[in-house]
Amino acid sequence: MNACLASPILQTRPMLIGGKWVEAASGEVLSVENPARRQVIAHVPRGSAPDVDIAVEHASAAFSTWSKVVPRDRGLQLLRIADALESRLEEIARTIALETGNALRTQARPEAKLAADIFRYFGGLAGELKGMTVPLGEHVLSYTRREPLGVVGAIIPWNAPLLLAALKIAPAICAGNTMVLKTAEDAPLAVLLLAETCQAHLPDGVLNVLTGTGPECGAPLLHHPLVAKLSFTGSTAVGKLVMQAASERVLPVSLELGGKSPCVVFPDAHEDWVADGIIAAMRFTRQSQSCTAGSRAFLHEKIYDSLLDKLVQKASKLRIGDPLDEETDVGTIINEKQFRRVCGYIEDGLSQPNNKLLAGGLPPTEGPLSEGYYMRPTVFANASNEWRLAREEIFGPVMVAIPWTDEADVIRMANDSHYGLAAYIWTHDVGKALRTAHEIQSGWVQVNQGSGQSPGQPYGGYKQSGLGREFSLESMLDSFTQIKAVTVNLTR
Ligand code: ADP
Predict the structure, then answer these.
(1) Fewest CB atoms within 10 A around its CB: which of 3, 44, 54, 298?
(2) Do 230 and 242 contact (CB within 8 A), yes or no?
(3) Domains (range + CATH), the chain
(4) So which residues are the catalytic ones?
């Protein structure tokens, strides 16, 4: 397969099943669009149930040998994959930018680097797949083993496709599982490059990567009788379907779902770096298509106007444009459906009594930015935590700023959501910061920064934001192994 996708040229890209690059059994294809130009750039197989069957059978056959490879030897292959990914980082990053519309410099390149880092991190942890001994007495040896589960069925979304694929593949195969991974309809191309890189270092069938739609290809994977574990990242609505499918066969399931994360700013935090941090937390440079976007800004009344002023000035300076241009900070929304959805939220905000649109708004209808699904960072002031914009995950660059005066009240508002993924707190007072961090019902709280996730730090949601953790040693052990206890009578 020719791996190079340096320019938006129409290509047909096969999927990976049992070590072979194949078309869909049906012969049908899906189109992949460059959202910056609204042009089709590639076709991929439209995988469905027969393809899922073959892929799972290959993964199941590969499991019997892969699971018995010495863990550190498996880890070594991951380390080689990390090196190989690094050697083609630019090609992969450009592919991400082309298919997702995420800016090359601010998003796609860092994502490609992080994906390689994830393989390196988990590759180094292979020796930590340890069990323990249980002190049952002098005449008994009781010990535990961390055993792999079998075939993992993984489904990922389009917003950070390479990173999320790496986060499923690396810990799962390091722990001795095999995998069938379904890519997202809108962003399969970089993940196919990742699959190609992995395939060069793994036995056939250990990793199978399918392209196709959720209902046609994802659903049969969820329900396949030989799949032993489901790992899903995407919307809460589909996450619930994954959990239902898992319940049929009592399968373990990991879910990384949506968010509506609060930024709580205390009155002593009003400097420029706070505004920069809130912009970073809001993920404006990924068009806020991130489940950790800090999209509800709770600013203390005393600094509400002055901090918003700084924030809006800085957000308005972000450069929106062609994702492949090195000067670009902010790229495009992924597709027309999502673009219209985000516009709908902006219209909803504009229809609220007393709303105050401080930045952005509906996208331009003429000029170069109207060629793609571009949207400007949008900030609504005078917002209420009851607005639909404050309650639903928009997955677009629309932030609401809500004033507060009472500490207990702001914590109540921050927690008044069925989501609980991330939160951000801004203050110089360490006691206040940590008190608030402990009160907030979210899986990840950052104080005085709005950074992205790092390998080693357990990441996942409270409430309807998910189940299980990713990014860490615990995630590999808890999500991708099962514990067997062996008890031996030493007197016989
Ligand atoms: P998003 O709105 O971010 O696309 P989704 O949850 O709809 O989030 O999609 C995430 C992933 O889930 C995609 O790979 C999609 O194809 C898949 N998916 C969507 N619907 C289903 C379904 N019914 N069964 C299995 N997978 C699905």
Answers:
(1) 3
(2) yes
(3) 11-257 (3.40.605.10), 262-447 (3.40.309.10)
(4) 168, 256, 291, 470
